[in-house]
From TrEMBL:
InterPro entries to which the protein is assigned, alphabetical: Apaf_helical, NB-ARC, P-loop_NTPase, RX-like_CC, Rx_N
Domain Disease resistance N-terminal: 20-106
GO biological process, alphabetically ordered: defense response
Metal-binding as UniProt keyword: no
Boundaries of every NB-ARC domain copy: 204-359
Keywords: ATP-binding, Leucine-rich repeat, Nucleotide-binding, Plant defense, Repeat
Family listed: Belongs to the disease resistance NB-LRR family.
Protein name (database record): Disease resistance protein RGA3
UniProt-recorded Gene Ontology molecular function terms: ADP binding; ATP binding
Keyword Nucleotide-binding: yes
Amino acid sequence: MDLDGVELREVNPINMADAIVSIALQRLADVIQKQIQEEVNLVRGVKKEVLYLSSELDAIRNVLEDAERRRYKEKSIQDWLKKLEDISCDVYDVLDEWNSAILKLHLPRMIKVWPFTPCSCLCFKKVAMRRDVAMKIKGLKERLDIIVKEKDRYDFIVNHPVAPQETTRVQSTSSIDLSEIQGREADKHVLVSKLMRGVSSRQEHGPHVISIVGTGGIGKTTLAQFIYHDDCVVNCFELKIWVCVSDVYNEVKIVKAILESVTRISQDLNELEALLKCLKDSISGQKFLLVLDDVWIEDYTRWEPLKNSLTCGAPGSKILVTTRSERVARMMGAVEIHRLGQLSNIECWELMKRVAFYGRSNGDYEELQEIGREIANKCKGLPLAAKVLGSLLRFKDTKEEWESVLDSEYGNWRKQKSRSFLICF
C-alpha cells in the first residue's frame, strides 16, 4: 500500500475509525514539525491544547479494536465512534487551515509587488486568522474532553501501545506489484523521458534533480516505484538506489543507506565526513539513479554536503525526489518539477475494486459494482483513499453492507465538500 508517509499502523482492515484517527495524528505531527522548521508561532497560547489533542487521540487509538468489535452490538458505542470520527476529521480540517496560514506568512514579499496594500490591513488579517484558528483548536479540545470521558465509561479493553521506537513513519521500499498500478502510465512516460534526457552526454554536469510533488496519498511513492522498475531505467543506470528519507532528515542515516545499497556492506562509520568520502569512492564514475522518497527538509545547508558528494557520479546520473512541498523541490535544485494530479473516478474504482474483490469473482458481485462506483467517486482522486475503502469493503459481502458505507456512516460526503474523512488522506 502506498502510504506516502502516512502511518496507518497494522490496523484491522474494517477499523476505519483507527485509520481516521491515525491520519489526524499524523497531521498533528506534520503541522507541529512544520511550525518548528519555519520558526513560526502562528497560534499563541494553544500549544497545550495541540499536545492534548495528540496525546488523547493516541490513547484512544489503543481501545479502538475493542470498540469496533462492539460497534454493531451496542448503539451507544456506534454513536461514540461516529463522534470520534467527526472530531478527527475536524482536527484535520483545522490543522489544514493552520498549515495554509503558515504558508501565507511567507507572502510578505508580495507587499513589494503590490506596494499599495496597506501593511496595517495585512497585520489585522494575520491577527484575526490567529485568533480564529486558536478558538477552533480550543473548541476541539473541549469536544475531545467529552469523548474521553465517555470512553472511560465503556470499560474498553486496552491494547498495548507500540513502543516509541516503533512509531516512526512506515518506511517505503522500491518493491511494488506493477499489476496493481492504475492511471499513471502517462506520468511515468513523462518522467522516464526526463530521466533519460542527457544520459548519453559526456558534457552534462550533474546529477540533475527531478521532483515529484503532490499531496499526501496522491501516489508519489507508487509512481517513483513504477519508474524505478521501468525497463529503460533499469538498462540505463549502472546503480539504482532507493532511500526513504521521511520527516526526520538524518544525514548520517541517509548516507549509510546509500552506501549499503551500493556496496551491500553494513557501515560501522558514524562520522558524516568519513561516510561522504566512502560515498564518493563507491559511486565515482558510475551512472546512478538515486530515489529520495518522502523528503520534508527545507534547509539547504543540510542537503548541500550530500549533494556535493554526489557530483562525482558519471554524467547522466539523476536524483528523483518525492515530496509534498514544492519549496523542498526548489531547495534541492530540481531542474524539473512534476506535479502529480488526481486519478479519475474510473481509475479509483478499478483500484478500489481490485482490493475489495481480491480472491473473489467480479461476476459474483455484479450487484455491488454500481454502489462501489458511487463510493469510488468520493475518493476525490486519491489512490490511498481508494485502497483504504477497498480494504474496508473486502469484509462486506451484501448489498446492504455496501450501501451502509455509502449512505449511513459516510452519507454526509455528499453534503459537505471539505468534511469528508477522505480529505484526511
